[in-house]
Amino acid sequence: MLNRVIVTLLLLSICNISWAGSPDCSAPGETLVSWPDANNPVWEMCYLRPSDSSAAQGSSLEIREAYYNGHLVLERAHIPLLFANYATLTCYRDWKNTDSAFLQADQALMPTRPAITTCDASTHEVQPVGVCPFQNVSGGDGTVGDSADCVTGVQVEKYADRLLLSTNHSAAWYKYSARYTFFADGRIKPRFGFGNSDGTNSGITHWHHAYWRLNFDINGSDNDQVFIFDGTNETLMTSEFSDLK
């Protein structure tokens, strides 16, 4: 499925575009971003910070109406489910709509110092990094960054070959970070990470499970098709199904 989507996007990049659509971004909380710029965009989309994201408990950094070279690719991308599962058999469903501060990039266009989230600062397995500006747990003293650079919301970073969106949010003592990278060749790379702010339960073996929901609508939903590839054959699925990877 992933290979099929990537190939489709690459084909879009070399086809002659007969029409150019663009996102609306007029719903509450939506912000428009265009890359590399609004005059000749390769990627355009709406994004929402965690506190404005959909779902009862939020859904982290949310992307809506993502267009690639004027073609609708994603109707929505977000993380509606997030769990912290402990070896003691305790499992928490964490919320994803509380913004948490992180270090902003030095600039949006071609930054020389990228945004630093809790996940980036958490380089030690159990040592907490606190809140922004984060404690240096990499063997140095002091903090990572300066309090003047601590922000909440979504950081936009525009590089020569990609658009990067980052955010930070919290659930009790856990700090979570979410990123989406949109490349010039059509690839989309989501990433999710975590860090512990105060050390609570850091000595207990546990796992964090984030579940992305990616609603691909290539040029709209009319001709959407989903295939299961078993390594040899592809099977077209015509109704709702569940499957193991």
UniProtKB/TrEMBL annotation:
Gene Ontology MF term list: copper ion binding; primary methylamine oxidase activity; quinone binding
Gene3D superfamilies: Copper amine oxidase, catalytic domain
GO terms classed as biological process: amine metabolic process
Protein name stated in the entry: Uncharacterized protein
Organism of derivation: hydrothermal vent metagenome
